[in-house]
Structure prediction request, 325 residues.
Amino acid sequence: MTAPLLEVENLRTHLHLRRGVVRAVDGVSLRMQEGETLGLVGESGSGKTMTSLSLLRLLPKEGGGVLQGSIRLDGRELTTLSEAEMAKEIRGRRIAMIAQDPMTSLNPVFSIGDQVGAPFRYHEVARGPALREAVVEVLRRVRIPSPEKRLRDYPHQFSGGQRQRIVTAMAIACTPRLLLADEPTTALDVTIQAQIIALLRRIQEESGAGIILITHDLGVAASLCARIAVMYAGRIVEQGPVREVYRRPAHPYTRALLSAVPRLGGQRGQRLAAIPGQPPNLLDLPKGCRFAPRCPHRMPACEEYPPDAPVGPGHSAACWLAAKG
Prediction:
């Protein structure tokens, strides 16, 4: 078996605030192969985005985030690199992020040509006349019509789908090994969503990059991902091949998420399923299993956090029910 593209072991990102310690990421372990797409799903506040920012070592200044654990990209340990090495050699060059909201990530006062050209300039990939050609080519790759005529246009002159393509162009400019796509289809209609998914799939086929897709949309994850990891309160509670997890979910939280998805052909007037209660406060996490207060199957053993139990080939869940078989 080939060496993994990404190996994350016991990753912890804790923020120290006046009110206490926020355990935003609290023991995440995962691995990915080259060219693989991993879906990271869960409710808002489960730690998905903070996990991706931790991979880039971009922690909030407030609270002086403390990062522990191991992050290896192509066998290279990232947690021991200096800030200068991360900035010049990793961020944008080896790992890049496709931002969630292009209207806030694109600067309204700079042209698209200037902004897409920024990664090329910063990482010294292209300069002078070659820079314009490189910008036009990467915009063409993401299917911006007549890119050579639109370099001086500003973000507001593009549609929402085109802006998403532009931030994708910025992310793939330096041909990174790993793309972190944070809710890339949010606020887009279903037709444009399908186009963005097709675009990510094509980019992956062309470059062989791995993709971590961060989403709360289980349908989007199913259409793009080969494997899925379900997060809850800063931890991965279940992971495995997407078809296996969807067909045979082993963790009560995964089952609850899947049951809440609307389905065609349901009975008229039938109420959608909802998960009772609220996610826990990360400043005051429950003892043991963090889903136990909302779980219909909770038992005395849940006062201790369960180990990851194998439930199938490449499929595991952190649940005492799964551990008991």
About this structure: Residues 282 and 322 are 25 Å apart (CA to CA).
